[in-house]
Amino acid sequence: MKKREKYIRHEGTTALAAPGQKARRKKWKIFMEIYVLSALVMLILLFFLTGLGKISNHSAFITQLSKQPLPTWSTPVLGYVLPVSELGTVTLMCIPKLRFWGLGLAVLLMATYTLYAYLAFIEIYGYVPCACGKVFEKLSWKQHFIFNLAITLLGASALIIEYKLKRRLKNYA
Description:
Blueprint: E1 7-10, E2 13-16, H1 19-56, H2 58-66, H3 74-94, H4 99-121, H5 141-172
Antiparallel strand pairs: 1-2
Helix pairs in contact: 1-3, 1-5, 2-3, 3-4, 4-5
């Protein structure tokens, strides 16, 4: 069976890819995989620590959550949904076959948190105390927004790269 060779297009013609180009593509793929894994580790640590903090100090989390400009009925619901969502996201990101969905959920959660931090930063609700865990309670809303935005962009780019890497694997199978 003949091994699949890589071809490149150049001005309407097709030619066999140069060996150096093949090596560069392999290095680029390895770099992308390392980027995705680094983003996964950061997101897993972030969601694990915050989710675990919300569960371990649940009464304080509920108290802080009740001070947020949210409907009163949502406080008990969010008190359980948020930590379970964060730890569930960690679980999905740790399972290789579900990693893409875990990354997608992580980006969705981070985008929501980023939007909320932005609205708190511009004081659309007036002053709002932070309902964050121990690590983040010292941050201002501006710092929170910048941090969340950076993590959201990191996760979104990792999600796109993961999608492209998986798509290429399917094309070669």
